[in-house]
Design a protein that fits this description.
alpha/beta; Rossmann fold; six-stranded mixed beta sheet
């Protein structure tokens, strides 16, 4: 059996004594003075044994409800909308993309900046970054956008960032800086590699504090590429199976950006690197320098949640093991006040089996269960895409049974139960994949991958 599977079994068996009588708890955590983010940081288990290989560390952030006075306007936007107008976007896709763009234009405030970048084989700045003073004139121009030829995704992204960055440097004020990318195809001009494109968006996010959200339309685009661009670039990824859903998804994105609760959000985790080495961070980018691991979130919105699971490999024997986590951000609801919030944790060698069994933390165990089950889900979708349907069904069933065991020993959790229900539904349709035409099959694969992405990037504990 794999080491991960063995660890899961040991985790479930050890956890039973502590939590059989407990009910589900919130992940909220504590709130700093004048803060706007609930913050929880804790290890999966407060103890370890001689045979422990990995130390799991869980962090959960959640924004307060948005309570700004009605007279207070939302934070200004500095947006660039980058639209793929290649030949495959002709017809309904481009028509609904234009409707989505019109929605954004109609909802801009006086302090907002907008640019529109169009790309096919070439890149065109359709509307330079500026305040929109004549919405009717711009809406009339948008109606005349027509489709073209190939897909220069790299060029479109870079030009969108250029538009936002130039305005950001000139204004030097508190704004939400974001690129919004919409495409239905594969990158086939310029850089096309997912990792290289992700490295570009990661650089703009970490160095310039500009995020990117991606909208993939239909069955033809590379969903892994679009998700990676958004993940590395600190934004959101949307799968649009029907183009008529585009305007409502743009509405969701715009409304989210109107309720910023924390800006320039950073996590810094300090660990003893002579004892622990970083093995993996689930769902988010992390940078390790010496004994410090950092994660950037930039803006966090009202009631938005971030669940982060970090795995450290234990490389040497030491007792105790100290891990600390510092959260820093600016609270726009308190005139941009800088907030620093710290958590200190110590993981010790258990004196006996009973002490180890009582050392697990409930919220961390639920975050761990979510990440592991979602990872199995991702593996199952990859197997389906490779036509390995039997293996995909086995992997899905493994995730279902893992969550069953979790519920038996830890207790109910509505969010995890919903994930399990989705896995059960997925298991029942795997056999149907063999009979589907390629377009329907591709749409189903994208739908499942998107659900998994949303599960870990936008949790609702």
């Amino acid at each position: 059996m794999k080491a991960t599977t063995l660890f899961m079994m040991a985790f479930m068996l050890c956890f039973s004594m502590q939590v059989q009588s407990q009910t589900a708890t919130t992940h909220h955590g504590a709130l700093a003075d004048n803060g706007s983010l609930y913050f929880k940081a804790e290890p999966l288990n407060n103890t370890f044994t001689e045979s422990t290989d990995n130390i799991y560390y869980y962090v959960h952030l959640q924004g307060l409800p948005y309570t700004a006075p009605a007279v207070q306007s939302r934070m200004p936007l500095n947006l660039s909308v980058v639209i793929d107008k290649s030949g495959s976007m002709s017809g309904n896709k481009l028509a609904y993309a234009k409707e989505a763009l019109k929605y954004i234009i109609n909802n801009l405030n006086e302090g907002d900046y907008l640019s529109v970048v169009l790309y096919d084989s070439n890149v065109e700045v359709f509307y330079p970054q500026q305040k929109v003073k004549d919405k009717d004139a711009l809406l009339e121009r948008v109606a005349g956008i027509n489709s073209g030829s190939s897909t220069n995704l790299e060029g479109g992204i870079r030009k969108g960032y250029e538009m936002v960055k130039t305005t950001k440097l000139i204004l030097d004020s508190d704004m939400i800086h974001r690129v919004i990318l919409l495409s239905d195809g594969l990158a086939n001009v310029g850089i096309t590699n997912s990792e290289q494109l992700g490295a570009i968006t990661k650089s703009f996010f970490e160095e310039d504090r500009i995020s990117i959200s991606t909208f993939g339309v239909g069955a033809g685009y590379n969903e892994d590429l679009m998700a990676n661009i958004a993940t590395q670039g600190g934004g959101n990824y949307y799968f649009i199976d029907s183009p008529e859903k585009l305007p409502s998804m743009f509405e969701e994105e715009l409304k989210g950006m109107s309720k910023v609760i924390a800006q320039n959000t950073q996590l810094e985790i300090t660990f003893p690197y002579e004892v622990l080495s970083h093995k993996k961070t689930y769902a988010y980018n992390s940078t390790v320098k010496g004994n410090k691991l950092s994660i950037s979130f930039n803006d966090i919105f009202s009631e938005e949640q971030k669940s982060i699971l970090i795995v450290f490999k234990k490389t040497r024997k030491k007792d105790p093991i100290a891990i600390s986590c510092k959260l820093t951000y600016e609270n726009p609801m308190s005139n941009g006040m800088s907030i620093v919030d710290n958590r200190e944790n110590t993981v010790t060698l258990a004196k006996n089996k009973q002490e180890h069994e009582s050392g697990f933390n409930k919220a961390a165990s639920e975050g761990y269960a979510m990440e592991i089950a979602a990872e199995m889900y991702a593996e199952a979708t990859v197997l389906c895409n490779q036509n390995s349907f039997k293996d995909a069904k086995n992997k899905t069933n493994e995730a279902i049974l893992f969550l069953d065991k979790h519920f038996q020993l830890v207790g109910e959790n509505t969010y995890l139960r919903k994930l399990q229900t989705t896995l059960k539904e997925y298991k029942t349709i795997i056999d149907d994949f063999k009979k589907m035409d390629r377009v329907t099959f591709s749409l189903n694969i994208k739908r499942q991958k998107h659900y998994r992405y949303r599960t870990i990037s936008c949790p609702k504990f």
